[in-house]
Amino acid sequence: MTTLKQQITRNPFQKTTPKSIVPPLHTNLSVAQSLPCLGSLSSPIHSPYRSKSSRSSHQTLRTITSSNQENPQTPLITTPDQHTNCSLRKIPSKLSKVCRLFYNDDKRKKQSTCTDSEIFQIWKDILIDIKNDGTSKKWRQTWKNNNLVLFEDFIINDLKFIREYVWCLPRVKREVLACLVNCVKLGYIDDSLFQYYLLNNQNFKEASSFIQTLLDNSEYIFDSNGDPCYNEDGFIIQISPKKFFLVCLHEILGSDDLITFFTESYPFFSDSLTILRWCFEYHKKIKKDFLNQSVNTENSMELMRLEKLILGVLSKKESLDEEIASEVKHYFCTGMYSNSFTVSVIEILNNKVIGETKKVSPITPSLKEEKKQKKSKSSDERRTEYIENINEVQDVNRENLFTIHPLIVAQQLIFFDSSMFNVIQPIQFYNCNSCCINKYISKLTGVKCLIQKHTTSLETFSFFLEVAKFCIALNDFNMGYIILEELLFLTKTNKDLSQLLSHEVEQQLTNSFALFSPVKRYDTYKNAIYSLLSTESFIPCIFILEKQLKKLNKKPLIENNLLNIVSIKEHYQLIQLFIYALQNPYQLEQNVSFQFFFHSMFN
């Protein structure tokens, strides 16, 4: 017994709350933590400024990290903090990789010694003064004394996205900008002074066009409703699928994190073929722009983002017909793209073209072979003690099941579960009504029948309770949940059995099932899983996922052709656990007799 318990080396569940930072008044970025290595809109995403130190000559994968140091808030649509030099235009280099809200890093001018909070108060005072009297000299002198600027080293290269540029500004700056625009229209400020306030005499070829477009379209630009639709703090709350796609790839507004979220969440609102068609169109646009400008495409930011998006979409597609595969090769296996990208595309196509590969099916023992192994045992031959060595288990049936140690039973139940779980394609979890998911749930439900038929005494009840505990200790929350839920159901419906249970056994059952309490959206259960990420294999509970998605489905994911970003993020965070679990499968020893017994019982 002691040696068996030593097989489980697992720390007790610790209640860990995902890190979150309450944004100060002058910030506007949500930094709620998402799962490791899987980007989402809840991840820290940076503002539309880039630093010299964040550039490199090669595109590399990034890991999202957080720090206890300053983590200032920035708008939702932003640029990456690591990418390569772009040959299309000069890239701003003076700002830190996480933009500070009121930070002026122009070394040609006197540096401000104020802290962020002090500068924020200055901006706030200016906003109040402008609203009270746009002709006042007080706010103008304050502006000049502190050497303020609204757009710091910000190069506007695409006026079609001017609204997005403006909404990338922190809220107080955006409100100041709106007041300045009104002052220009009322004649309180001339165009040259307006340009100074916006750009602080920075040399922009596009400055006049930008300012004129801003003035001519101010009502549309500052309106929070539109595509995208913003809240007051500058977060996107609604956006059309096509605009979402375009923003992801934009040289300044796009980011690696945003692309990751797009490729992970698009199955909620579109399909792979539609996204690939958009990629074909975007390829033609880039190619046309490059030909017109005679620019080298080797280090293009847009191309690198397009490469990442294409690989993300292709990896989601279960299979590709030859026509689509041919189009992908025609557009993307060209000299415009990097060699590593071309190799990856060809490898994916070779694996996903219909007819070339097949998904491995779950391991199901041969019925004929198993029948040959079966031998009947008399009651005298039954073991009175637990079998503690799995190699000694040569035959499993309803009569001798309870002679085998609960740990071995739990391990084989996990093998049975994982063999079905691991063959599910990640994209199947986006629709829990899919045939694949329904078949998986149907198989798991068979465990309930096993418990109902065999839980007839205090001994058998305690046996299954121990099996459930071992399943949870080994991180299979499916099996743990199914067994505990059925045992709890039996205590309420089977009065004879309930009377046999001691208070201690009932308390053990209650304490064990508390892990799956729906309080605070299954907070205890989620914290238990979060503590396992990137360290251990686990299988989340598909039944809890069903319940959570039913509640979320009351909120539409898309309405009037606008995506509800909050709803999509909530959906994705639920299935993200299952996608992550598929990346770290169990490595367990199979006992053929056990697996035959389970499949025969549950079919």
From TrEMBL:
Region described as Disordered: spans on this chain: 1-21, 45-81
Segments of skewed composition (Polar residues): 1-19, 58-81
Signal peptide: none
InterPro entries in the record: Ras_GEF_dom_sf (IPR023578), RASGEF_cat_dom (IPR001895), RASGEF_cat_dom_sf (IPR036964)
Domain Ras-GEF: 409-564
Compositional bias per record (Low complexity), positions renumbered to this chain: 47-57
Record SUPFAM superfamilies: Ras GEF
Protein name: Ras-GEF domain-containing protein
